[in-house]
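ok trying again, last paste got cut off:
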Amino acid sequence: MLKKLINSAKKPFVRVLHKEYYYRVVMALIFCIAVQSIAHTQNRTVSGTVTEQDSAPLPGVSVLIKGTTRGVTTDLDGRFEIQVSEDGATLVFSFIGFAPQEVAVNNQSQINVELKYDMQDLGEVVVVGYGTVKKSDLTGSVVSVRDEDLTAIPVTNALEVMQGKVPGLDLTKSSGQAGAGLNIRLRGNRSLNAGNNPLVLVDGIIYGSTMDVNPNDIASIEVLKDAASTAIYGTLGANGVILITTKRGAQGKPKVSINSYYSTQSLEGYDYIMTGPEWVNFRRESRRTVGEWNNPEDDGSIFVPHQLENFRNGVYTDWANEVIGTGSQQNHQVSVAGADEKVNYYFSMEYFDEQSLFENDELKRYSGRMAVDYKASDKLKLSTNIMYTVREQDRRRDPLNWANKISPLGPAYDEAGEIITLPLGDGTTVNPLNDQIPGNYMDNEINRRFFGNVSLEWKPVTSVNFTSRLGLDNSNSRRGVFLGENTIDIGPDGRTVGRATNNMASRITWENFATYSKASTDHDFQVLLGQSMWATRNEEYFAEGLDLLSPTMLFHNLGASQDGIRINSSLTETSLASFFTRVNYKFKNKYIFNGVVRADGSSVLAAGNKWGFFPSAAVSWIAKEEGFLVDNSTISELKFRLSYGISGNSAVSPYQTLGGLSKSTYAWDQGTSEAAAFGYYPSLIAASLGWEETASLNFGMDFGLFNNRLTGSVDIYEQNTTDLLIERAVPATSGFTTAWDNVGKTRNRGIELLLSTINLDQPSGFKWSTDFTFTHNKEEILELVEGDRDLANGWFVGYPISTHFDYEKIGVWQLGEEDQARENQQEVGEIKVRDQNGDGIITPDDRTILGSNVPRFNLGVNNRVSYKGFDLSVFVFARQGNMIVSEANGSYKIDARENGPRVDYWTPENPTNAYPRPNAGTSTGNARYFSTLRYADGSFVKVRDITLGYNLPQKLIDNLSISRVRVYATAKNYFVWSDLGGYDPERGGNLSFPMTRQLLFGVNIEL
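nice, full thing came through this time. structure:
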């Protein structure tokens, strides 16, 4: 058809058609060549290697095509490969600690880059109050925890990662219970009656010590210790400050991170409880002492028939072993981060689940976080940081306290495998496992917390930066408890109990501060002016009832309670207003001055005393910049710091200065129609209470040797706290017997050492580094209300606040010492104590200071070794020189009415000096000097964790579009050395909820 059409056409038309046809063919060929050329350009592959100055490969370097968001990161060998779109493209190489470098591609397909150290970046930017500063410019005592230390060990509370890594910080875990809290002290205790916990802030907003922030979301933790660092927070920083800065996005392609681990938890160590035969012998000995037992034929007179039969048949139970099981811990987190020229974003989600060693003792946490920065213009940036956490916890009533003391002569289960409610045949002793029966016991708490802030940063001119920040912390919690029949708390045939507590707490913070900066060749000047205010509101509602109509109601229908109904509610409000200023001045890059003044007004203090003023001043000298050291090749860094300042503590409960009333119940003689009447009486005298104040002096030195192969710092400090709040006696004619007043003084003095060494750094890739921390703090009371001791509170001038005051046990009276024992109204086999004053008799005057909970020193050693794709870290933590009150030692039941820890007790055939003779004629409350058994050396050394990791070769994961995969295993708390055998003294001496050891497996993935 086409041929006929062409033939029938006129020749001129055919010629035109042919010309147009050839033209189109030529243009098509040109287009194809161009497309191929463009395709060839788009597919250009540029590869190479990035190294540092000593030719060692640099993994993780960002390689970005300038002007775009497309980029890659170098692998473990420093290699990269990237597709570029045009010959004129420029690659930007950047990595923390090195100066960024730009390289034009041109016609190159192979680009090798050596990054230079960025001395300014190596100075490390440190977060301080209301700003940041280069570490080299610090005048105060500040320690940073970051990088791998933040996620090195699995923790429930992110603050736990600081244990042993921050000099001056004494941190221990309170127990092995799921969600257990932390005991945190920074440079000792200062206050006798107020809290001594440091202030914890997340992104500048007060958070609190119950840390639900995902450790993978944290960029750094800074610990501010001296007044030069903490004075900017005034009364809030009296006990030190912990600043947590969370992660945000970074320039480049979106980065997806997945972190996941699972661990098993087992019993780390525990005091052995007497077995059935051991307890039988113990009980026999206690009755032999009083003449009630001579041989096994007398067993019928000292055991109930059911238990005696069980013993003869070999039926006995290790109750602790029955209630202790195995636990687990798992955490799964995913985050997405990125940024372009306008928006910086970070999103994350986390799921955490911890099951302790006991049934019905668990914690689940669900959290999400969003951080967005929007650059509206070159002068204005808007930011938000929001976290939402749901925390659900089931608590178990301490089962070991009961399991350790009931008779072992009974079975836990019947032949059908069901729990026997009353296993000992006495009708009064319930089974410790009863609380595990579904629906019989519940202690459940759900907390929903919204924590976040929005901020505006405005830079009207180059030298001025203004920030306005609004923070909100809002939590709602409900705790419900149900105690069924035959549970440990209720006992046999007791009445069921249901109770519920609802709490609504909120804190609103609003801060505005501006910074003016001016720099020249010799002078660097910065001024901060700011204002802060916050207000808290806490509402609580409580209800309880007995004899619920049905146990299935638990605590959800307290209106069905038939008796014992109780209700209560409370409202507490506080507020604080503050104004502050800080001046930083640096001269010739080597002389630095820092001055701070803050004024705080607290609502909880009395009128006329509400405002406090807290100044500080600090200077530092960067000696390395002096002519006689600047070219010294051995000393690579040397700086001296000196600071002095005053901080305050409004250590008063809300409304305490206003006085208080207490409820009193009256009865009228109305016969059978008696009804209670209620009244109120003055119970707390109004007092003009003011601030506790702490004056702090700190001298520090920062140093680096051998091109910073050895770096560290030393700090020596003294802190004096005055106007302590103490309850003192007042004349009874006032209508009161005691009143609160600002009296008393304490002091803390100490030395702190931090060392970091690069032991080996071989071209082959083998590296070994060590971090070492040492803390010694001497805590003592300087002044009390009257005299040098307060026996009612256990306070003594010249000693720490938490001090053990008692008789000193020196052994047990032995055969042959009957006359000496009789002089003190004692017999052989009883506890012998020291006659401190040498008057020949034991009186209360012979009591003495035995020790303190405060350790003489803390020590942390962290070793890291890496070779190619492998990495190994071993962290050792030690706490030495403290005395604890051991529940195991003090649980010796001398009358043998109950079971207890296996101990070496005295008998005529076993003349030990460890424990006194069992005696059914006395009790733990009546046995003389029995309290002296409780004390034990709490020193310990433990291998806190051992972690072995491996980064998969890049060749294996390139096809999966994954930039990094690391798998690792961690053994936590597997090795502990102390005088208490397998027991971990970090627990503090208590037997309930023992510490656990964990074996963990995890993976880190970056897309």
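cool. The mean pLDDT is 87. The first strand starts at residue 44 and ends at 51.
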